[in-house]
Amino acid sequence: MDLVRIYRVFQRMMRYPDLLAEMRRLYLKTLVSKGINDEETIRREAKARIEAEGKPLTEENLNTYTDALIDLHFISHFSDEAIENHINLAHKNELFRKLNRVVNTEGATPGKIRKALREFCEIPQGDLFLNESEAEGVRVALINHFISNHLPIIGIAKHHLTIRDIDEMLTNSFSTPRRPGKIGGKATGLLIAHKILLPRLMERDPELEKYVTVPESYYFNSGIFSDFTDYNGLYSFYSQKYNTYEAIEENYRNIGEVFAKASFPSDLVEMFRKFLESVGKHPLILRSSSLLEDNFGFAFSGKYDSVFIANQGDIETRLAAFIQGLKQVHMSTFALAPILYRRDHKLLDYDEKMSVLVQKVVGRRFGNYFFPFAAGVAFSHNPYRWTLRIRREEGIVRLVFGLGTTAVDRIGQGYPRLIPLSHPQLRPESGMSQIMKYSQRMVALMNLESGAIESHSFDEVMNMVGPEDRFLSLSTDRDGWLAPPLFEMQDIDVEKGCITFDNFLTRTPFVPLMKKILRKLESAYGRPVDIEFAWDRDKLYLLQCRTLSVVDDLAEIPVRDDVAGEALLFRNNHVVSSSIVRDIEYVVYVDPRAYNRLDSLEDKLAIGRVVSKLNRVLEGSRFGMFGPGRWGSNDINLGVRVGYQDINRTRILAEIAFEENGFTPEVSLGTHFFSDLVEAGIVPIALYPDQAENVFRENFFLEMPNSLTTLVSEYAAYNSVVRVLHLPSCTAGRYLQVFQDAQRQRGLGFLEAPAKTP
């Protein structure tokens, strides 16, 4: 036997003399499990050696010889690497016991827990692991301390986050010594999704390993929010959520002034400065990550602010912009929309705190602008099937060129590409003219000089980018056919083209990759999910992941064919979800033609205020809203500008598009607005009056008596644009009945006496 090797191994063991017994316990356990030897045999061998050497057979001598033989047998059968792993495991077990004790001690400070965690994780990982049940208990305790205390989230996280994953997250976390905090829902969803797709300990998928990543991310936990409110004495704001609608709205304007004057403690300002110095001059996005956000069944989509900052210039300029961004995200905790959302979902009494997830913006610099090749949202369950060939369970993607703000917000002048992953080449449009008309016309970019997110025409942007980006994104009119370029260096006439992503979908791994990602995430979560992502330089960057609220499709919706004449109000054949909504008493009708005739921005903004007021006045009634183009659009010319708080009490929300206006309402699929409708149980309806098989009785809505002045007399000036119909008063006691069949793409709205069982 190599005596030098034995000596060197023993030297390594003596680094931890207090752990020699633990090491030998592990050695013996492995010898037994491998069928090499067992304790009884080794003790007999030790007894024989003692007797052969003529030494007394004492318990002390027997134990000494047994220990030595365990060492020798293990050294003779295993490599130096295996021996080192067992020595490290003995050390890990010791530090794990310490970590277990600290993390489960009542009142243990975050600093003390982090110190014990860091000591444990400094030991090399190796191939030998801790007792699984004990490790799970520590993972749960760490998740509770630093990540989330929501049981559904813990139930998922504990199976995918290792102790080392949590330590790695904490190395990128920022906190205050005065207040504990967690990283919030959005950050947690991203962290879990990342480890589901690219696990630390389980076998990784080579394709996901090659293409999937997350942007460089940092976690400014909720303790910073608490410290900020403490430091500035802003305790009264915590009662904001219990105020009336009007008081919340009024107070929020005052909160803005208070936050502008408030400051962070000096040690936090210094922490922010050092962070910016280390991260460099790369554009950043400060994303809301409240403790409730992206929870199971409560997405809070778009309720809180996220802020882009260019992060350019000298350190003081960058620091000022960063602090202003933090304040804006923190302040949105007290805004009307999230408070009403919490009220609607019985979450008002929860002590909501805001964390901020700071990420490097994905993309490249093009002159003074910064943006990725593409971005979007993807759903593992497709709620919008415009043909029966599409399989809902394979998901759908909403894809845009440039920054993803145009994918998740409702912005005008063009549309994202909707990609059903079961049939990625299928489009809701038909023919070249329709595809070009409803293609993406504007691209969102970050202006690095001003720091603003700007919209630029797609042809202007195509002149900024290189041939590869044009090759993957554009198609052009080729003798009356819309076709993508055949090769990368092909000369492309941008003025005759539009963004289709045809080559991107067929010549990159994007489609099969996205299907795999959504399947793995849905399987791990046990329910449908949606993600936000960006694609740049052959990498898919995961930006966000949360569970998806899905409307259960009813087995069969009895859409009648025999309704006609004055009882029929509309028929539609673009149906997002199967639903039955009975006995609608009031209809709020924003006349699309009258709305388009409004000349001033102020008048169009006022229509949103009228709708908002009616939403509150009619709260106790069953009512529906009908309006032009895209409800909630950021482009006020395309639809009434409203938010969740303005429509949360309606039963249906119908979008009307008259072809002569030049616009068709884009289905709100994938936007924050769509998520709001699903979670609030509001049925979205798209009406295309000029398309075949669609019926819309416009005259009925225009000729029935208008109750607007009776309900909200202060808005009588808008009587010609907003009409409120009390249906039973003007239809001999009948109410609106709505049937929507997504399976067969048929919908119906008609007048009928109230159902006996609404």
Give a description of the structure.
The protein is of the alpha+beta class. It folds into four domains: about 5-80, no CATH class; about 170-360, ATP-grasp fold, A domain (Dna Ligase, domain 1), CATH 3.30.1490.20; about 365-545, D-amino Acid Aminotransferase, Chain A, domain 1 (2-Layer Sandwich); about 565-750, no CATH class. About 40% of the residues lie in helices and about 20% in strands. It contains 29 helices and 28 strands. A six-stranded mixed sheet has the order 2-18-17-9-10-11. A five-stranded mixed sheet has the order 1-3-6-4-5. A five-stranded antiparallel sheet has the order 20-27-28-19-25, with no helix packed on it. A hairpin with a 4-residue loop joins strand 27 and strand 28. Helix 2 (about 20-35) packs across helix 5 (about 80-105), helix 5 packs across helix 7 and helix 13 runs antiparallel to helix 15 (about 315-330). The longest helix is centred in the N-terminal third of the chain and has 24 residues, at about 80-105. The chain is elongated and about 115 Å long.
